[in-house]
Amino acid sequence: MSTVHITGYHEANKSLSLPDLKQSLYDEGAVLMDRVLVTLHGEEHRVRRLLEMRIFKKDFFNYYSEQVLPPVINQAVAYYQRKGSADLMEFGPRAMIALTADFAGIDRPLGTDAEADTLIGILKALGLAATLGQFTGDREPIKETVRATLRQFDEQFFTASVARRRALIAGLKDGTHTEEQLPRDILTVLLRNEDRVDLPRDMILRETAFYFLAGAHTSVHSLTHAMHEMFTWAEHHPEDRARLKTDPLFVQRCVHESMRLHPSSPVVQRRALCPVHLPSGDDAAVDDTVVIDLFKANRQVAVFGEDAAEFNPYRVLPAIQPPYGLTFGVGIHTCLGRELAAGVVPKADTDPLKHQYGTVTSLALALIAANARPDPNRPARREPNIAREAWASYPIVLGA
Nearest 5°: phi and psi at 374? Predict the structure, then answer.
């Protein structure tokens, strides 16, 4: 078995859609990731994706961006404004915890800071599973931590959430509840279809935990990189400081540009199910590994210009070219939550007052409004044990 690396943008774009390449990036994290949507392939993936796409409709995104997200963000910003400082690696999970829990289908009956702290701890521990493939140390202790955390998640939150939804679904069948009374989340969709699709309880547990993790984990990664890029840009382009505070569409451009430079998964790893002739001209034999390097593809000069490796929110691209490149994937494995995280790409006539900015830009706008800036006394630190761009800590100060 050998490994083929693909770094060209157009070759990567085409390779991501090849049906004979199966996802293998998360094989090491199977303790959580086994048979969740992102690791499924073929017909099983198609059926699960169609099932869960019932959640991802335009009115869902509008509902979350207009009603759910603003109070959640305001509460998180107020929490840290009282302290006068924060760490973006802590702010992100606290701001996202309510959103991702509601979306996944995890009830928060207490609604307290202590309950939020518990969920944040679970979130961070589960996140270890998604990055095990890039972890350079001993992986066994990490796997055991994920197993223990999954049991805690089940006992403290998942079991009760399942019971409440089963009662509501039963009420829908006997006429005591209406469709509008059912929660609009992944767990409810899975429970309503567990008899029709192969969804044993442990599978539903992992899928719910995965969605709980994925929404927050990727947004925290993207937010921290985006804030760093905007802090650095404003330092070298002081004429844009005011624009960051007054032009939300410009802030979204900054976020999209940062997402291009810093994809949450810098590579996609696939395994060839049969002999495949790749768009790059290479050939992959059965069980060969194909590594599609999104980090390098998103920085290809031929597509993004001579300064492709640099942050430039004024970058001009063709209308058909996503400003965030291949970060959210393409084809059947395109991230279902792309619009929720990144919002809608604006057009020339977009009304900024009616625009859907996405969670990452909304979080960034709230931090900018709170006068967030790097803490001069506590430098940011990169994560040393993961073979990708990741922040371990990014302290900021808030207020005047």
Answer: -60, 140
- pLDDT average, residue stretch 126-154: 86
User: Residue 276: beta bridge partners?
Assistant: 284
Q: Tell me, what DSSP letter sits at residue 135?
A: B
- Between CA 38 and CA 57 the distance in angstroms is 19
Q: Alpha carbon of 324 to those of 25, 50, 294: distances in Å? A: 21, 25, 11
Q: Which residues touch 354 (CB under 8 Å, ≥6 apart)? A: none
Give the span between the Cα atoms of 122 and 153, in whole angstroms.
Answer: 7
What lies within 8 Å, CB to CB, of 345 at 6+ separation is 256, 322, 323
Q: Where are the domains of the chain?
A: 26-264+298-397
Parallel, antiparallel or unpaired: strands 381-382 and 391-393 = antiparallel
Q: Give me Rg for the CA atoms of the chain.
A: 21
What would the pLDDT profile of 223-276 be if each residue is shown by its tens digit?
A: 999 999 999 999 999 999 999 999 999 999 999 999 999 998 899 999 999 999
Cα angle for residues 135, 138, 143 (degrees, 5° grid) = 80
**Residue 233 near residue 240, CB atoms below 8 Å:** yes
Residues in a beta bridge with 23: 270
Q: Are 28 and 289 in contact (CB under 8 A)?
A: no
Is the pLDDT confidence value at 280 over 80? yes
At 229, which helix (H) or strand (E)? helix 201-236
Q: How far is the C-alpha of 217 from the C-alpha of 66, rounded, in Å?
A: 22
Instruction: Specify whether the CB–CB gap between 139 and 132 falls below 8 A.
Output: yes
Q: How many CB atoms lie within 10 A of CB 287?
A: 12
Best CA proximity match to 131, nearest among 58, 55, 28: 28
CATH code of the region 26-264+298-397: 1.10.630.10
